[in-house]
Amino acid sequence: MSRHFASLLAIAVVAITLTPGAASAAPKEKEVDCTQVKCIALTFDDGPGKYAGELLDTLKKHNAKATFFLEGQYVKSRPAFAKRMAVEGHELGNHSYSHPNFTTIGPAAIRSEIQKTQDIVKQVTGVEPKLLRPPYGMADLQVSDIAAEFGMPMILWTGGSRDWESKNEEAIKKQTLAVAKQGSIVLMHDWVKQTVDSMPSLIKTLQNKGYHLVTVSELIKDQKLEPGDIFPVPEGWEK
């Protein structure tokens, strides 16, 4: 399986909180009420990628927020980007340390992958991730039980940009707009240069269509997710 193959399990989220030490770094902004206005959440996996700085510049310019599902190994190698994500009010989630398929490794290895990422994100940013996106979107009951041990729901997506596949700016914009609906959570990657290059035009188009670009926690804040939940529940999932 390709390292960046998006599972068809699809979908969504939960919040992240700042520790007291980090709270003063991110300015308090008025939350968007997604029950009253159109909202969409752009999510970026596998980062911080090497183009994350340019992406953050674009998000800041357009007053847009995103959720970053980070790999611990890249937080370690690109700490400045991870810290900036937190300072600028974006949401940080856990996407493992080195991106193995959790359904093919043992429980000790899964715990290590999650814990190492929790530790390095907290060390670098002052933020403790509160949501888990399993690599490839792959999860089973064992993964659910371990996520529950960490107090984390599992978060997938409603649609993907397929940027890892096309690596084409126009195709990325077209696919993202095709899956963009009220309440959508879109899977993207900040290591794909064409994704980052497409963002100024894409954000402008989404905002012109009336969308507010928010974090996933803002998008689904009325949901009552429990640790170990997967949201929404994929077809055939039993817990």
Automatic annotation (TrEMBL):
A matching Pfam family: Polysacc_deac_1
The name this protein goes by in its record: NodB homology domain-containing protein
Parts forming coiled coils: none
Occurrences of domain NodB homology (ranges): 38-214
Upper lineage: Bacteria, Bacillati, Actinomycetota, Actinomycetes, Streptosporangiales
Keywords: Hydrolase, Metal-binding, Signal
Species of the source: Nonomuraea recticatena
Leader sequence residues: 1-25
Segments traversing the membrane: none
Source superkingdom: Bacteria
